[in-house]
C-alpha cells in the first residue's frame, strides 16, 4: 500500500484538482441516474392522469438532467486529462532528476537498450494513475453513496439491497477482475518471456541459423513456447472474461430485488405507487457508477508493477556525491592521474586492478587492450561516473572526490563510440558542449573535425536533423560530429574512445591525424584496439584482460 | 472496422466473427426481454398487484440478467481466445516466411521490436477482439431491435428515436472531421514528447559528461508543460464529439419520456407500454456510445495487427530453386556482373561486380566502409538476389539451385556474430551438430578460443547467449570462427574475422586461414593489411559511393 501513496506523491497530483475531477465525475453519473429516475417518476405520475400543469416541475427536471449530464461529463474529461498530463510532465522531470546522478554506472539500461526502453515505458505508463487507478473508484463511491441515499429517503429496505448490489458490483467484482488479471499475468509472464527470448534469438540469429541449416531446431523451440502461451491464454480467458458478465448479472438481480421490495411496500401501503418504477430505474441507472471499475482493476497490476520498478530505480542512492566542502576547481593545465586503481561495477569482479595512468597537457597517451579489458571503465573513472574501490584518481594532486563533480567533468571532453547523438539538429548536438557558442565557433569545430565542407553542402546547413541516434548520418559522419562536439567543448583533456571504429584504415588514419592536430596543447587519451595513430603517441598503455574466475 | 487481410489470413478471426454475430442477436433479444419484464412488473405493481402474483416475471428478470451476463462472457471469452490464437498464427507465419524468404532482412533492434509486438501484442489485440468487435456487432443489431419493438408499441416514440439517432453519427462525423487533423497532430506531439524523453534518458551519460545533465531537468518540465497547454486546447474541441453523442442520447431519452408522459395524461398510451419504451430508450444509444469509446481503446490492437501483417506480407524473395548445386570443392564460384540495391531504396550498393573464386583459393576482398563487401557475402549465402547479373558455381546459376543444399557447403562468420542460448560447445556445434567433443575443441584451438573457454567456470559447458555468461566481442568472434572451422565446408566466407581481436589473436586466425584451411575456397573480407598478405589474391572493391539517407531523400 505504501508504494501506492509514494506513487501519488511522485505524480504530485494536487488534492484540489482531484476533488474537482471526482466531484464532476460523480455529478455526471448522478445526473444520469436522475434522468432515468425522474423520467420513471414522470411516466408513473402521468399514468394517474393529473392536470398536465402539475407535471411541469418533473418535466423541467427530466430536461435538466438530460442537458446537465453530457455537459458535466465534458468538463470532467477536460479536468481529468489536464490532471493526467500534468502528472506525466511532473513524473518525467522528477524521475529524470533522480536518475541523473545514477547514470551510467548505476543504471543497467545502458548496456542493454531494451531495459532502458522499458524503464522509460514504465514512467510513461504512470500517466494512467489518475484516470485509471484513482479517479474511477472515488467517483464510484461518491455517486453510489448519492444513489443509495436517495433510495433510502423513500424505501430504506430497497436502499439496503441497492447498497449490497453496488458493493458487490463495485468492490467484489473488480477485486475478482484484479486477481484474475494478476494471476494470469504471473502464469503467462514466464511463457511470454521464453517466447520473446526465443523469437528475438531466432529473428536476430536468422542469417546464421539459415546459413548453417539449423533453423528448424530453433523454430521447433519457438513453436513449443508458442503453443504453451496460447494454451495459457485460452485458459485464462475463462476467468478474465467473467468480471463484466458478473456485473450484468448483479445489476439485473439488484434491480429485480429493488423492484420486488417496492412492489411489496406498495401493496403493504408504505410506498406511493408512483415511486415503484422510479426506484427500479434508479437502481438500474446506479450501476453506471461501477461499470468502469473492472477494466481499471484489470490494468491495476501492470500499473502497480511499473510504478514499483520506477520507485525502485528512483530510490537508489547515488554512489558518487559532491563533498560537503569542495576544493576550488583545478587549474586548466593540471595533470590528471590514476594511481593504483582497482575498480568495477557492483557485485562483479573488478574490471581494473592496480591500474596507473598519467595525463598532462600536450601529451598523447594511447590505451590499448582487448574488448572487455576495462577501457571504458577508465573514462568512467576520469569523468567520475564511478569511484575506484582502491587507489585514487587525482587532478592537480587532489583526489577527484574533493572537487565538485562539475569541476571534474569540465576538465574533459569525451568523443566516444558510445557518445549519444541526440535526435535534433547538427547545431543542437554541437551546442550541447557549449550552449553559448555562436555559429562561427560551431563552423570552426566542424572544420577541425573535417565535417565543415559536408555540412556546408547541406541545404539546411547546421539545422539539418541528424535523426534518432544519428541514423541520418553515415558512421564516419556520426563519429566526426561527436568529435567536433568534443573539440567545441574546449576542455583541457580530450578523451577519444574508439574514434575510428568501423572506419576503413585510410579514413581512420586521416581522422586520427586531424584530431591530433586539432587537439593542440590539450592532453589526449586515445582508447583503441587498432593500430592507426599509435606511432604518433607519446606513450602506449596496455590493459590486460582481467583474469577469469574459476 | 477490422483489417480485411486479418480476416482473410486468420481462420480464428472468421470463426470469431460468426460467433459474435450469433451472440449479438441473442444479446439484442435479451435487452428487449429485460425491458418488457421490467415494465410489466413495475406497471402491475403500480396497479397494486401483490408480490406473489409477480414471482414469475421477477424470476425471469433475474434469469434474463444471467443470460445477458453469459452472452457478455461468451463474447469476451471467444474474443480473448481468438486474440491468442490469431497472434500465434501471425507470429509463426511471420517467422517461417522470414526464415524461408528473407532471413537477413531484420536488423537487431527491429527483431527485438517485432518479437515484443508478436508476444505482448496479444493484450492490445484482446481489446480489439473481446471488446471492440462485440461492440460493433451490438451497435449494428441492438438499435434495430430496439427500434422495431418500440415501433410496435408506440410509433411516435420510435419516430423521435429515429430522428435523434442519425444525429449521433452525423454529429460525430462533423466533429470528427473537424478534429481529426488536430487529434492526429496531438498524438504525433505526444509520441514526439515520449521519444524526446527516451532520447534524453539514453543520452544521459553524454549530457553528464558535458555537464549538461542538470539543465535538462528544467527542459523536460518545460516541454511537458508547453505540450499540456497546447493539447488541452485541442482536447476542448476533440471532446465535443463525445459530448454531442451523449447529448443526443440524453436529450433523446428526455424527449421520449416527456412525450410519453404527455400522452399518458391524455390517455393515449398505457403505463406498461410507456415504461417499456422508457427502459429501452437508453439501450438504443448505449451500444453506439460504447463503440465510440472502444474505437479509441482498440487503436493499439489494430496497429499491432497491421504491423505484423505488414511484416508478414512483406514481399518475399523468389522461392528457392531445385537443382542440386555443384560443390565449390570441384568448381569455381563466380559473380558475373552482379549489382544489388535494397528494395525501396535509392542507389545501388554494388554495381556490376565480377569476382571469381577458384577452387582452393583464398581471396581477400577489401575496400572502404560501405563498399558492399558484406552484401557480397549475403548474396553468396543466397540471402538476397542480385538485381542484375548472376552468381554461379561451375557455370550453374545458384538461383536455380536448392538454397539449403548450397548453404550446406558454405561456412560463414558474419561481421557481427550471434551467440545463441546454450553452452559454448552447443554454439560451436552449430557448424556441425554431430561433431565429437574432441572435434569441437580442435576447432576452438584453431580459432584461439580454447584458452579462454577452458578458463570459464564450466569450460565448454558454460551457458552463454541471452541470460548466460556475457562474452566480450572478441570472444564471441572466436566462438563464431570455431563454428565455421568445425564445419567441413568447401567454401568459407569470413567477414572481418579479426575485428575486435588483439594482434596475437588476429595472427593466429591468419595462420589458420593460411595453413589449415588450404584446399578450401576462402573469401576473406577485411580491411586489415596483415590478413591481406595471407591471401592468394587481393580484390579491391571500389564501390558505388554510398548515399547517406538524407542525400537519397533530398534527391
Word description of this protein:
The complex is a heterodimer of chains A (550) and B (555). The longest helix of chain A is centred in the N-terminal third of the chain and has 49 residues. Chain A is elongated, with a radius of gyration of 34 Å. Chain A has 18 helices and 9 strands. Helix content of chain A is 61%, strand content 9%. Chain A has a 5-stranded parallel sheet with strand order 6-7-8-3-9, with helices on both faces. In chain A, strands 2-1-4-5 form a 4-stranded antiparallel sheet, covered by helices on one side. Chain A has 550 residues and is of the alpha/beta class. Chain B is α/β, with parallel strands linked by helices. In chain B, 65% of the residues lie in helices and 9% in strands. Chain B has 18 helices and 11 strands. In chain B, α2 runs antiparallel to α3, α3 runs parallel beside α9 and α13 crosses α15. Chain B is elongated and about 110 Å long. The relative contact order of chain B is 0.09. Classes of the chains: A alpha/beta (550), B alpha/beta (555). At the A-B interface, α2, α3, α4, α6 and α7 of A face α2, α3, α4, α5 and α6 of B.
Question: Short description, anyone?
Answer:
The complex is a heterodimer of chains A (550) and B (555). With 550 residues, chain A is of the alpha/beta class. Chain A has 18 helices and nine strands.
Topology:
The complex is a heterodimer of chains A (550) and B (555).
Chain A (H helix, E strand, L loop, with lengths): L1 H10 L3 H33 L8 H44 L13 H13 L3 H26 L1 H49 L1 H6 L3 H26 L1 H26 L6 H13 L6 H22 L21 E8 L8 E8 L4 E5 L6 H8 L7 E6 L2 E2 L5 H5 L2 E5 L9 H6 L7 H10 L3 H6 L17 H15 L3 E5 L7 H15 L3 E6 L10 E4 L8
Helix pairs in contact in A: 1-11, 2-3, 2-5, 2-10, 3-5, 4-11, 5-6, 5-10, 5-11, 6-8, 6-9, 6-11, 9-10, 15-17, 17-18
Chain B lengths: L3 H6 L1 H36 L8 H47 L6 H46 L1 H48 L1 H6 L3 H54 L4 H27 L1 H15 L19 E8 L9 E8 L4 E5 L6 H8 L7 E6 L2 E2 L5 H5 L2 E4 L8 E2 H6 L7 H10 L3 H6 L7 E2 L8 H14 L4 E5 L7 H14 L4 E5 L3 H4 L4 E4 L8 H6 L1
Parallel strand pairs in B: 3-10, 3-11, 6-9, 9-10
Antiparallel strand pairs in B: 1-2, 1-4, 4-5, 7-8
Helix pairs in contact in B: 2-3, 2-4, 2-8, 3-4, 3-9, 4-5, 4-8, 4-9, 5-7, 5-8, 7-8, 13-15
